[in-house]
Design goal:
Strand order of the largest sheet: 30-31-33-32-34-35-36-37
Number of helices: 14
GO biological process, one term: proteolysis
Radius of gyration: 25 Å
InterPro entries: AB_hydrolase_fold (IPR029058), Pept_S9A_N (IPR023302), Peptidase_S9_cat (IPR001375), Peptidase_S9A (IPR002470), Serine_Peptidase_S9A (IPR051543)
Strand content: 25-35%
Shape: globular
CATH architecture of the domain at 113-138 and 480-748: 3-Layer(aba) Sandwich
Pfam family, one: Peptidase_S9
CATH class of the domain at 113-138 and 480-748: Alpha Beta
Largest sheet: 8 strands, mixed
Family: Belongs to the peptidase S9A family.
Oligomer: single chain
GO molecular function, one term: serine-type endopeptidase activity
């Protein structure tokens, strides 16, 4: 199973529904503050916002607010510390001392523990409600579930869970699914009694006898690669440490390529080749990346004839490949250039290339094996379309499947070698369709997944020759769920600059738009990562209590094409925040929610969204849930020793440039906290977070406590044995959701 860097959206997005990943995919690690705009002045509150009065909250009753003996919250000590930019600008950061890269400072740990104790005390009156929510959430899960098996060569591969177990079991059967099961990895056994454990990726050797996998027992995403002999069940004495999760086997089946991380910044720095039986110190250096703005990964092409090194920044990419049989000399396919992106795959004697070369929404090109290094020989297969964004290409012997975006929705285009292109049909107005696991190219059957806010994740396979469609599996939802009890809509809200923002909403049948309901609004809006409408069984607990759930497809994502992303980053970033606010006001005006019963949710870069919106329009939200939030933008982006900083100058800007410094400072949540009323807020983080360091939310909470003028609750929960994605076990994570949901529902006056 291949897995790129899970983004912050992964932690929060309600769209984690892929049935399984191919053992031969080759992702490049993606941006990390993601499961994440007109120039404005600092401390910006637009005139129209200042003119509005905060909505009445009298009819919203909180059980916690009625508790007379809640303890006083912790007060963090202030210690002056000057943060200076190269151009001379200086800011005082009185909570900078909370940063400790070793995570051992006793004063820092004492503060985090005090906040956790305060969170325990505050949430105690809701303990019964929280437990009830937890039982609801896990009660919808089919505990002894399994993925749809897929065929790769002569084996069928699948992942299954056993009742009561926290972790999956990866298994296979030879020939067909009636053959005896071979357990490849039982993650429950590997995890043992560890507080955190994750296998982020596994890759098979060409003969399928060896399995290399990347494990993490801290949550820092600093992996150790181990190897198992699948014939004997023996774990080989291989421990390649300090690695990313990216792995690619050479054709000899006795060596693999891996990517070495910088131990401090966690940047992917070097590609090395490890030979089974050799010591890690002997691993040959294959490639070293000197530009710290690039991510790096390794993988095989679809044909498995080439091993490739993929290098990518926010605005450019480069790929170098070598024959898998003799992977010694890696050839650059096209030299990197700023604002030139491409990714090439190989099958049946040709290279197929997805690229933005003279094509902002990307196009598909092809070139013969012997001409791949000459860009002038690249020829269009699918021309650029300003209304259609091409997101993915999957190659087959007799056709090509293309993942696209049009009108803010996803679709799959089929392009046969002979004949006219056609599209896989959809059944709803707001949905998510994506290519599924298609492990082998020599088939007429295409697998794809379909879901919506009311339709559980469903895996289909479609015969492109006959048109026959078969449903392989629909996610089973226990607890009496019936998708006909719920309604989803696709709406369009107008932003303050006139831009139309797509919005997906869902509610239970019988809902009346009378302006009395509570609503949870989610968005992400960064890195071009789109928040597609996908089923999430957790949301049923909200809908069944009369709430509305909405997804704001704001700028900074890529729902409407590449321009949607460009209009929500760098010096246009504030569009992301104002879009979110304008969607909220639209939904309230249309009667979907009461003005005093709106909750907002975001995490990672979506936590930046929460912090900015809380500063800009606190009166529009009753409660906010901000998880692993990227809230100290300027200080973090000034410090290149912090993981991800150098990779992201083209996303946020480089504050060493005064223009970007001032703009980032104008919206940075930490820097714009004021003495005013804020919504009730739940903030969550993990001590070992590698994407957004724990001290960002810790500092944010400390400063917010010191400045806010309201009596609304501010709860800060640090998972002391987790990273960016929260706890590692499947049930443990529902504990986290139950706590934040209980807090939110109480603030909204929603009862059991």
């Amino acid at each position: 199973m291949s897995s790129g860097r899970a983004n912050g959206a992964g932690f929060l997005q309600f769209s984690c529904w892929s049935d399984h990943a191919s053992p031969t995919t080759s992702p490049v690690p993606g941006p990390g503050r993601q499961p994440c705009h007109d120039r404005v002045f600092r401390h910006h509150r637009h005139p129209r916002e200042r003119a509005q009065s905060a909505p009445s909250t009298q009819r919203v009753e909180s059980r916690l607010a009625a508790v007379a003996d809640l303890p006083a919250p912790p007060v963090a000590q202030k210690r002056d510390y000057q943060v200076e930019a190269p151009h001379g600008a200086v800011r005082n950061d009185e909570y900078y001392w909370l940063r400790d890269d070793t995570r051992e400072d006793p004063d820092m740990l004492a503060y985090l523990n005090a906040e956790n104790a305060y969170a325990d005390a505050v949430m105690a009156p809701l303990a019964e409600f929280e437990e009830h929510l937890f039982q609801e959430l896990v009660g919808r899960i089919k505990q002894d579930d399994s993925s749809v098996p897929f065929q790769y060569k002569d084996y069928w591969y699948y992942t299954r869970f056993e009742t009561g177990q926290e972790y999956p079991i990866h298994a296979r059967r030879k020939g067909d699914m009636d053959a005896p099961e071979e357990v490849m990895l039982d993650i429950n056994e590997l995890a043992g009694d560890k507080a955190f454990y994750q296998v982020a990726n596994w890759e098979l050797s060409p003969d399928q006898k060896l399995l290399a996998f990347a494990e993490d027992d801290v949550g820092r995403r600093q992996y150790t690669i181990r190897v198992k002999n699948l014939e004997t069940g023996e774990m080989l004495p291989v421990e390649v440490r300090g690695a990313s999760a990216s792995i690619a086997w050479a054709g000899d089946g006795q060596s693999f390529f891996w990517v070495e991380n910088d131990p401090v910044t966690l940047l992917t720095k070097r590609v090395r080749r490890h030979v089974i039986g050799a010591d890690q110190s002997e691993d040959a250096l294959v490639y070293e990346e000197t530009d710290d703005s690039f991510y790096m990964g390794v993988g095989l092409t679809r044909s498995e004839q080439y091993v490739c090194i993929f290098v990518r920044s926010t605005v450019s990419s480069e790929q170098r490949c070598a024959p898998a049989a003799e992977p010694t000399d890696f050839t650059v396919m096209a030299p990197r250039e700023r604002d030139f992106e491409y990714s090439a795959d190989h099958l049946a004697g040709r290279w197929v290339i997805r690229t933005n070369w003279d094509a902002p929404n990307f196009r598909i090109m092809q070139v013969a094996d012997d001409q791949v290094g000459d860009r002038s020989k690249w020829r269009d297969l699918v021309a650029h379309d300003e209304d259609v964004f091409i997101s993915r290409v999957e190659l087959f012997d007799d056709f090509m499947a293309i993942g696209e975006r049009s009108g803010g929705l996803t679709r799959v285009r089929l392009l046969p070698r002979e004949g006219e292109p056609n599209y896989v049909s959809a059944d709803e107005s707001a949905y998510t369709m994506a290519l599924s696991t298609n492990a082998q190219p020599n088939t007429d059957w295409l697998r794809y997944t379909y879901t919506s806010l009311t339709t559980p994740a469903t895996t289909y396979e479609l015969n492109i020759a006959t048109g026959e469609r078969r449903m392989l599996k629909e996610q089973e939802v226990l607890g009496g769920f019936d998708k006909n009890d719920y309604v989803t809509e696709r709406l369009w809200a107008q932003a303050r600059d006139g831009t139309r923002i797509p919005v997906s909403v869902v509610y239970r049948q019988g809902f009346e738009k009378d302006g009395s309901a509570a609503m949870l609004q989610y968005a992400y809006g960064s890195y071009g990562s789109s928040s597609d409408p996908a089923f999430n069984s957790n949301i049923i607990s909200l809908l069944d209590r009369g709430m509305v759930y909405s997804i704001a497809h704001i700028r900074g994502g890529q729902e409407m094409g590449r321009h949607w992303y460009e209009d929500g980053k760098l010096l246009n970033k504030v569009n992301t925040f104002t879009d979110f606010i304008d969607v909220t006001r639209f939904l309230v005006a249309e009667g979907y929610a009461a003005p005093d019963r709106v909750a907002a949710l975001g995490g990672s870069a979506g936590g930046l969204l929460m912090g900015a919106v809380a500063n800009m329009a606190p009166q529009d939200y009753r409660v906010m849930i901000s998880l692993v939030p990227f809230v100290d933008v300027v200080t973090t982006m000034l410090d290149e020793s912090i993981p991800l900083t150098t990779n992201e100058f083209d996303e946020w800007g480089n504050p060493k440039d005064p223009q970007f410094y001032e703009y980032m400072l104008s919206y940075s949540p930490y820097d714009n906290i004021e003495a005013k009323d804020y919504p009730a807020t739940f903030v969550g983080t993990g001590l070992w977070d590698s994407q957004v360091q724990y001290w960002e939310p810790a500092k944010y909470v400390a400063r917010l406590r010191a400045h806010k003028t309201d009596d609304n609750l501010l709860v800060f929960r640090t998972q002391m044995e987790a990273g960016h994605g929260g706890r590692s076990g499947r049930f443990q994570r529902y504990r986290e959701w139950a706590e934040s949901y209980a807090f939110m529902l109480d603030q909204l006056g929603v009862r059991e």
